[in-house]
Amino acid sequence: MYKIVFCLFLLFAMGYPSFAQKKLTLADFEQQNTFKAQEVQGIHSSANGQYYTTLENGKRIVKYNYKDGKKVETVFDLDQIEKPAINSFSAYSFSPDETKILLTTNKETIYRHSYTANYYVWNSVTEELTELSAKGKQQEATFSPDGERIAFVRDHNLFVKTLRFGTENQVTTDGKQNEIINGVPDWVYEEEFGFSKAFAWSPDSKFLAYIRFDETEVKQYAMKMYRSDEAARIENTAYPYEQTLKYPKAGEKNAVVSVFAYDIKSKTKVEVDLGEETDIYVPRLKWTADANDLAVMRLNRRQNKIDVLFANPFTGDTRLFYSEKNDRYIAEEFLDDFIFLPNNDYFVVNSERDGYSHLYLYDRQGFEVRKLTDGEFDVTDFYGFDNKKKIFYYQAAKKSPMQREIYYTSLDGKKQGMISPQEGINKAVFSNEFQYFINEFTNLSTPKTFTLYDNSGKLVRVLEDNSRLKSKLAEYAIQPKSFFSFETSEGISLNGWMIKPANFDENKKYPVVMTQYSGPNSQEVEDKWSVNWYNYLAQEGFLVVCVDSRGTGARGEDFRKVTYMQLGKYESDDQIEAAKYLTTLPYVDDSNIAIWGWSYGGLTSLLCMEKGGDLFKAGIAVAPVTHYKFYDTVYTERFMRTPRENPDGYNDNAPLLHPEGITGRLLLIHGSADDNVHLQNTMEMAEALVQAGVQFDMAIYTNRNHNITGGNTRMHLYNRMTDFLKTNLK
Questions:
Q1: Where does the Peptidase S9 prolyl oligopeptidase catalytic domain lie (predicted)?
Q2: pLDDT greater than 90 at residue 227
Q3: What CA–CA distances, in Å, run from 39 to 55, 113, 405?
């Protein structure tokens, strides 16, 4: 029976006529999660690399054997605890000796990555479940390497809990809302440097290093919050209140950062010498494997030079260990892929110095040993180093920018190869000793599957094949996605995908909805499975198309960074070229083309409508940036420098300053409590449109952030956009 169902699914996915009767609804995506793929959650490798554990039903931690994939035991089961203080948990971590488990529960989101939570510690020896702290919710609770302590942040201060005695020591005392933050990043660091924990234990557990953020001089952004929040069931009041956050906009002051090393035994701390320049970033802290040095990454404000300083944790004295420069900007991959190897003899750097993102090996003295990867492709993730076999593992887009494979190369370069057997998107989670890996795989016709392999690429076991989802898909008439490419008038080859309308007839002409994001190093055109709103639009008679413009990822540094100093220009040029290409197709109604996008995609949609004129009959811009002077320092200045340094780059490609070019019908959408791309962008754009005499539609979602979620919000949003497209594209 399974084989029959799966074959039917493949027939539908490949575009064969469907015998299914069910039609897609918006509720399938925004309320019911009809097509949500099952995942293997909470994967953790055991210390010896022989076992892995997963989180099941938010209550149990189950151990499995890597060798055969079979269940070994239930390590922890909340239902077996007598009168537990919690009903479930969403995450967990083991102490190094695996006798204790730190459980995360009652999470409350702060920003994109950060949250507060209640943490509990399970001691498997004494079989006791105890609260980490009863003095308020915490952030980023983390075991020390020896398992004796847990560090965490509460109310902007850093604490250390000694588990043996149950004592709680306060490391910092100056933390204060909108002034001083210790141990966790401020808004812009979290959003743009992609981390939420700003402290690091030394490998010997003797020191705790942390970053202190002084955001006293950072300007505040205020958002009106309205009590008529149906999703939270908050009653209306006569007056709204303001929610403020420190948000440094392009060219404005950032938080002043400092780094400290806290001695656990003496309970004293020293400040690390970062140099005389204070207008800098510290995007990462790392320790060398021998714990002798704290590695501090010091990034200049222009973000085209990064220094790795070695700090003495006893004195705070520093010396320059490594430096990397770039004519445009340092890629984010450098931050996480700068790795000290376990034996402390080498470290690895991800650099774009030859025009592609590649891994380089250096010795402990800072001299280059050799280039680990080479070719006209980008390394997209570095998994680590097998110290026993002397093998490096990494992910790359070697076959195609739309795919990802898992590769290995030896320390001496004599052994190398690929260990992911299927073509599509492969992501690996390796065991601690690199003997095994769990591969998350998908391609256009295959929902996520999770499989266990050994490090030679031999299949051990299928962990989750989403067979239930495949059976569900067979009940629906779903239009498949297919790839295409074309060449622009400038000779640039661009990749795209399209979903043709239901009951497609090549002799008919169809309205087109173009979707894109277009932001730096992003990708929307990838060989991965999805069923979403776009399939619904195809069912309703639209041809849906997506093209990755210049500036997007996995095609080398020049393709990725051509947008430097002029964000929006080439991206919108290429989307306009894509629309022109579509008009040459016999089944495209060239008088009925719309373009839409969210965030950066909203910016690009507005620019396309302004520059493309009658080419676009309609457009939707959700939470768009309308002038980069409104956006944050880290992101904007990385690609644009400051408004003072680059006024033409900011103004020439700002939708806010060129509204008169829009001839099609426009729908502007924004959440009123968007802490990322502020409502200011849309309100200013609306006024510019009014003064230019351009008619438009507008929808503001009360108290919603950048994701515009909560209650019935998503259903309302997608109904609104669908109705707009149906009304304006005949």
A1: 531-730
A2: no
A3: 11, 20, 20
